[in-house]
Amino acid sequence: MEKQGLRVGLTGGLGSGKSTVGRMFADLGVAVIDADEVGRRLMQPGQPVYDAIVQQFGSGVVREDGSLDRRALAQLAFQRGRVEELNHIVHPAVVAAQEQWMGDLFAADPRQIAMIESALIFEAGRSGFVAGWRDRFDRIILVTAPEEVKVRRYVERSHDGDPEALAADARKRLAAQIPDADKIAHCDWVIDNSGDIKVTGAAVAKIYAALRAEAAELATL
């Protein structure tokens, strides 16, 4: 069976700048799907994921208009130690949606690069909720930055709230993620996004060239 397309995972912890790097790849022509956006869509009223979350976490995570109160849900998940419960509901559904997206993409263009942008690629495998998680990807890219830089970025982009409380929240979220140091050996490329954005852009361009060549070669097999 002919192998079509190149499957790439783009990951990085909270505040690493993963989304910025994802936009750079998209600007170069890579098809990028954001796992967070997929998750938000699946968590809308009427979706099975929404129903499962309300059943598991209760009506306290539902706003008056029927939508999920994501802040209240995050507090339960990260402040009350219920992250795994939430991941058990969300991860399999998000992965299934990503697989469908990649299949449709490659059917239309076997030379395409499909990039899954997700902070929790490794965490999904550790949890056991996603079987064969590493086999989903031909290549994995890690975007990294020092923890204090990540925390600062999180605080800066959170436009309201006490900075100290936000920083504490950021550290709890980071603590729930696998450290970058443990991921590096399993990644094909690591992008240090702690400094000049032009340096990050140059790294993206170099990796894109390698991905483009590999995708073209795969399409001829």
Structure description:
The protein has a single domain (6-218), classed as 3-Layer(aba) Sandwich (Rossmann fold). 55% of the residues lie in helices and 11% in strands. The protein has 10 helices and 5 strands. A 5-stranded parallel sheet has the order 2-3-1-4-5, sandwiched between helices. The longest helix is centred in the middle third of the chain and has 26 residues, at 83-108. The model has no long low-confidence stretch (mean pLDDT 90).
Helix and strand arrangement:
Blueprint: E1 6-11, H1 18-27, E2 31-34, H2 35-42, H3 48-57, H4 70-79, H5 83-108, E3 113-117, H6 121-127, E4 139-144, H7 147-157, H8 163-175, H9 180-183, E5 189-192, H10 197-218
Parallel strand pairs: 1-3, 1-4, 2-3, 4-5
| Relative helix content | 40-55%
CATH superfamily heading? P-loop containing nucleotide triphosphate hydrolases
Structural class: alpha/beta
The CATH class designation is: Alpha Beta
Characterize the largest beta sheet: strand count, sense, and whether it forms a barrel: 5 strands, parallel
Strand fraction band?
5-15%
Which descriptor suits the 3D outline?
Answer: globular
Outline the low-pLDDT stretches. Answer: none
Distance between the termini: 9 Å
Instruction: Determine the mean pLDDT.
Output: 90
